[in-house]
């Protein structure tokens, strides 16, 4: 019978602490990565299901603000209307954003197999130093010391096992790249990584085993602290906070949010209809849809759906207005639509100043009679009202670009293709 090996009780307790800490580290790492995946997926589904509703509500808020400004003519109401419209115009293209995220993930997955970063360069985390500091011909003394220590401990030729040689080769290649940049901080991180890796653990009976266990314990504790910090950060994000409201059933949470947004949109539509019918002769205009054609009913209803670019020319009857046919060929024509509308088709020779930028760019407007145009006349009427308040001679082009196009007035597009009204 072989004798039982004596074990230092203190060493044994340290072994147990390291094993328990490793388990806690791995468990927390899985939890944090799971939370990250859940938040990413929740954000994507949240956008796909509720994004159109949020956009609808923002558009209705802009329309309400514009209707209030048109009715009161108050400068503060006009400012609110301009701000609300700017908010809608500046909303990011989230579909394009999520597409770019998916493409980046695909690049990362493809590059991982080739040990490259998503841009086809070497692994990440090693190029930052090169951008922050110019590369030197000779690495610094600290980098030289760290690199020599790594080479002494991690060189592939120090092992005869093929698998271990491969592991060492991959690791020493990372050290070579960091050394070529003179990146002492990266070399220090690599030194810590190598010295605390399980593969580098001394034999159970080796005298240096105790020191290694202490280093391993410190390394694990630091990783746990980093993961805990990341977990708190993720839980504090907008999507993380929202997900925390119903962690057991996020789909039901999305359904409840959708109901709330639909109710809010319905209330906003009723408010918009109320504002519209307060204007004289607005009954028919309140039921206009995107092309400006009236529906059979002249009374607003709860089912009324103003289009994203709806404008009601009759809201602005008190504002100086001219018909398209009377606009002189050499008139100073100002188009206050958004960039995509302008690009699709605009009057040849017009000056483009989006309504959200108009106040800031007033100095660009010539000192001459001004003819202001938008899509059908709503936004341009607000600008004319502002210009009149500034003691400027200005006219709203009745019917906007739709009337301009129907009258056969010259139009061009930014791309050179056939122009049309967007």
Automatic annotation (TrEMBL):
InterPro entries: DnaJ_domain, GlpE_sulfurtransferase, Rhodanese-like_dom, Rhodanese-like_dom_sf. GO terms for molecular function: transferase activity. Gene3D superfamilies: Rhodanese-like domain. It holds the Pfam family Rhodanese. Residues 132-142 have a biased composition (Basic and acidic residues). Residues 327-413 form the Rhodanese domain. Residues 113-142, 287-315 are annotated as: Disordered. The keyword Transport does not apply. This is Rhodanese-related sulfurtransferase. It comes from Kitasatospora kifunensis.
């Amino acid at each position: 019978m072989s004798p039982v090996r004596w074990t230092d009780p203190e060493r044994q307790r340290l072994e147990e602490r390291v094993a328990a800490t490793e388990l806690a580290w791995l468990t927390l790492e899985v939890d944090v990565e799971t939370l990250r995946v859940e938040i990413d997926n929740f954000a994507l589904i949240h956008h796909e299901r509720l994004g159109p509703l949020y956009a609808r509500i923002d558009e209705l808020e802009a329309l309400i603000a514009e209707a209030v400004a048109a009715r009161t003519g108050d400068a503060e109401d006009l400012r609110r209307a301009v701000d609300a419209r700017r908010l809608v115009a500046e909303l990011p293209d989230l579909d394009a954003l999520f597409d770019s995220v998916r493409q980046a993930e695909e690049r990362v997955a493809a590059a991982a197999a080739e040990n490259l970063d998503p841009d086809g360069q070497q692994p990440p985390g090693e190029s930052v130093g090169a951008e922050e500091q110019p590369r030197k011909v000779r690495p610094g003394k600290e980098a030289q010391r760290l690199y020599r220590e790594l080479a002494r401990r991690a060189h592939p030729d120090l092992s005869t096992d093929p698998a271990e040689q491969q592991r060492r080769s991959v690791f020493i290649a990372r050290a070579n790249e960091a050394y070529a940049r003179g990146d002492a901080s990266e070399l220090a991180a690599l030194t810590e990584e190598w010295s605390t890796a399980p593969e580098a653990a001394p034999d159970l009976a080796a005298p240096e085993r105790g020191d290694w266990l202490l280093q391993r314990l410190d390394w694990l504790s630091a990783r746990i602290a980093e993961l805990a910090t990341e977990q708190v950060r993720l839980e504090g994000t907008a999507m993380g906070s929202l997900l925390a409201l119903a962690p057991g059933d996020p789909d039901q949470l999305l359904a409840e949010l959708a109901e709330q947004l639909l109710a809010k949109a319905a209330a906003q539509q009723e408010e918009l209809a109320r504002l519209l019918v307060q204007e004289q002769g607005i009954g028919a205009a309140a039921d206009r849809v995107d092309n400006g054609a009236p529906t059979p009913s002249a009374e607003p209803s709860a089912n009324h759906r103003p289009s994203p670019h709806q404008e009601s020319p009759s809201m602005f009857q008190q504002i100086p207005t001219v018909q398209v046919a009377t606009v002189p060929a050499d008139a100073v024509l100002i188009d206050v639509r958004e960039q995509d509308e302008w690009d699709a088709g605009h009057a040849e020779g017009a000056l483009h100043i989006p309504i959200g930028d108009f106040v800031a760019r007033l100095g660009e407007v010539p000192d001459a009679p001004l003819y202001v145009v938008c899509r059908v006349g709503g936004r341009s009427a607000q600008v004319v009202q502002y210009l009149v308040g500034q003691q400027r001679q200005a006219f709203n082009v009745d019917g906007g670009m739709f009337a301009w196009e129907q009258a056969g007035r010259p139009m061009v597009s930014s791309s050179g293709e056939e122009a049309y009204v967007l």
